Amino acid sequence: LKKFVLLRASLFVIAASVIYQFGRGIFLTMMPLFYVQELGWTDTEYSGLTGTAMLMGGTISILFGGFILDFFGRARAFQILCAAVAGLGVILAVAPGLGDVDSVMKVYRLLYMTLDTLIIVAFIAVAMAICAREVAATQFAIYMALGNVGYTAGSAAFGPLNAALASYEATFLVFAGVTVMAIFTMRRVSIADHVIRVKQLQ
Q1: Residue 67 buriedness (CB in 10 A; 0-12 / 13-18 / 19+)
Q2: What does the alpha-carbon distance between residue 121 and residue 74 come to, in Å, rounded to a whole number?
Q3: What is the pTM of this model?
């Protein structure tokens, strides 16, 4: 197991997962506070929107996720989708006035949850592709578990981070920056080269 997990592509996949999930933890922890405390939504309105967004994201992933991954490739799809998510972070950082338009914020939430679901699907596809057959279940579990560590760390970091930056706009920029880091990390992954290396070790 160790010799497969410590391969170059595997380590970059782990890093990309931890980094993306760290930003995701920041963002998803911030969202209910931003919508309810900053924008004045009720808890019921926010919960209803989130439920709809999750359903929409799941449905689109089922219908089009496979096509998107086949068209762009697994790792490239992850990068493109992350770029779109980073763009969403930048939008509210540079144009905070959009938060006052309910229809815009509804679309914003729907877009984010859809893109986030597709990113998770893309990551799972990448992780599965680089797993060695002999230890695939354990190796895949390690990737997912470390991603969850990143998410937990991001959630924990949001409070001190937002307090230090003193504005949601700055926190949105940090989220976007972290997501861009995940893109450049995944760019270092070559699934084809990794598969060749795995075969050499088997």
Answers
A1: exposed
A2: 9
A3: 0.94
